[in-house]
User: Fold ABC-type lipoprotein export system, ATPase component from Caldicoprobacter faecalis.
Amino acid sequence: MSDEDVKYMVVCDNLVKIYKVADIEVVALQGLDLVVEKGEFMAIIGNSGSGKSTLLNILGGLDRPSAGKVFVDGKDLLKLTDKQLVRYKRETVGFVWQNNARNLIPYLTALENVELPMLLTGRARRERALELLDMVGLSHRKKYKLEQLSGGEQQRVAIAIALANNPKLLLADEPTGAVDTKTASQILDVFREVNSALGVTIIIVTHDRQVARKVDRVVAIRDGRTSSEFIRKKSYAEELAELSNDIGTVGRDTHEELAVLDKVGRLQIPREYLEALGLIGKNRVKVELEGDRIVIMKPDHPASSGHSVKG
Ligand SMILES: Nc1ncnc2c1ncn2[C@@H]1O[C@H](COP(=O)(O)OP(=O)(O)OP(=O)(O)O)[C@@H](O)[C@H]1O
Assistant:
């Protein structure tokens, strides 16, 4: 274990997950690298099938990787025994799912649902459960059951439940997938609030690029690898001063897009750029160093004046 593995909340290095179905192998993650700082509030985006849920399941200890390295809060997930993994799931991570039937037990009240995970660890329950419901703005709904709560309220309760055991890492799978834009915005505000109040690291997985504006960093996954990152240019507080309540889309105005360069110097060039230069389907490009730029051109380009990537 290196210092880096302990310093960060998440370190994935060349992570590979292969599913075997009958005789066919599906490579869901193919050498994914990811580092998440402690206390970060970030999102992972990618199209359907890009490997988002696979990554989330591995980080949550629900699935084991096939190869590579994955550390969460200094724990080497490949080395945990089944018993240690059960403890890891109970104490280190919390989950918020898109499907609320997976988050909440229908015949219990909101308060009882939040108390339930604490039963297992035997901690003082009532007071903390009330505190958490208050934090997500739902004290007034503590006696309501699942069917009496709106979709947005159910998600808030789900956040409180996920926080019940004081996890270091909160994982959310499409938490705004089933609600309208305004409710989605409010749910993301709750995540931000718990991130700053409790310092819990939050990773939201989504295919919704609209989520991006509310988080500080977005990592895009393509074909089981990280492809690019969007990093907030201004602080969220500065932006709030300028923004309406609309969550908008991730854009060049709020986030800077960076392509990911892996350890051996490989770069994933955004598909739009490849399309613009007619490079889709080509397996070679011309690469030249031009002052402080690396210029990428069609193989048959006559001059060194193609589209460029800052070096
Ligand atoms: N249990 C499994 N058995 C076989 N193949 C699987 C399994 N789970 C995922 N896959 C495959 O792995 C790849 C990545 O799937 P994954 O669910 O991680 O993608 P995703 O980005 O979360 O997609 P979505 O947004 O649609 O949920 C897909 O090709 C998928 O078919």
